[in-house]
Amino acid sequence: MPYYRVVGEVPRKRHVQFRRPDGGLYAEELMGEEGFSSDSSLLYHRHLPTAVVKAEAVTPTADARLEPNLPLSPRHFRTQELSSAGDLVAGRMLLAGNGDVRLSYATSDRPSELYRNSMGDECVYVQRGTVRFESTYGVIEAGEGDYVVIPTGTIHRWAPEGQVSVLAIEAGGHVRPPKRYLSQHGQFLEHAPYCERDLRAPAEPLVVEGEEVPVLVRTRGGLTRLVYRNHPFDVVGWDGCLYPFAFNINDFEPIVKKTHAPPPVHQTFEGPGFVVCSFCPRPLDYHPEAIPIPYNHHNVDSDEFMFYAGGDYSARKGSGIDVGSISLHPAGFTHGPQPGAVEAVIEAVGRGVTTTSEMAVMVDTFRPLDLGPGALACEDPGYAWTWAR
């Protein structure tokens, strides 16, 4: 995170005695990235965060097998056809992935168990519904359009308020704002499409009583369920630059040009081997002879995974793409507007249309995406041939 926060009670100096009302010491826990040479936060627990009384291996219930995108083809997946059998963690249906990132879809009205992803950060996009995100850092109330970014190792749970649908982006490292948006000291610059004021983080501690509390932990070796002697939500205060936060896609400020701009203007986050972009309602390109629609393009270094979250997709009319759809356009395949879309948009501009209402989340990966069982279960097999109709 680019800026410092303090929540709850902390002592004036780091690593000095900080005592409970009964005279005992609070237990420090330093959460730090990159071998404690990057961002960190210092949390103060009522009980020892190291006190684990039991551990057991867990057999995954969801199918996590991936298979290559062969024969090479653009794909269309209809998440509207998927139904989750679990919560927003255990019920994730794997859509695509590679060694850098896993992309899953989940829909549920059930609270998850406590969970810690020790493989990398997560960026969870809330497509529908409202959900309470609880963690050792406190609470974030999240709703439609929110990205919730969760640092590696954060113990947390999801408590939906009714049915909630999410796209989960699980990184193999850390998810951050693009470097070009930040000063050398980490402040958002004036040309950035969002800033610190748009980010929501826990505002107060969340203290929960409990003993022998299970926590599901994911590591590169698999799944383990650790049982903690005391509830991990016992932090009375923390400070630092590492913490979960939410950012709503509606607060993204689109960058507009006279003619159509390429996807980097939509970039919102970056991770190891991938970027996340937000496509939001914006003015159409305003050159008098502009073609205000994407040109045919071939991203020679990336696979393009696009989740259509809302709005109108005039450029894709006739393809079957609708809200809830996901398209996957792999490197090696040229794609663009559907036949007739360019002429239709030029005609619409002539009638006075000046804005686009599309809302989408795109993940571009720099290694090929393999296909997961969730995607294969809801694929539209005719999508690849829609440009030839």
Automatic annotation (TrEMBL):
It holds the Pfam family HgmA_N. Keywords: Dioxygenase, Iron, Metal-binding, Oxidoreductase. Residues 23-248 form the Homogentisate 1,2-dioxygenase N-terminal domain. Homogentisate binds at Y313, H335. One of its GO terms (cellular component) is cytoplasm. InterPro entries: HgmA_C, HgmA_N, Homogentis_dOase, RmlC-like_jellyroll, RmlC_Cupin_sf. Fe cation binds at H297, E304, H335. One of its GO terms (molecular function) is homogentisate 1,2-dioxygenase activity. One of its GO terms (biological process) is L-phenylalanine catabolic process. SUPFAM superfamilies: RmlC-like cupins. Gene3D superfamilies: Jelly Rolls. Its cofactor is Fe cation. Belongs to the homogentisate dioxygenase family. This is Homogentisate 1,2-dioxygenase. It comes from Nonomuraea diastatica. The lineage of its organism: Bacteria, Bacillati, Actinomycetota, Actinomycetes, Streptosporangiales.
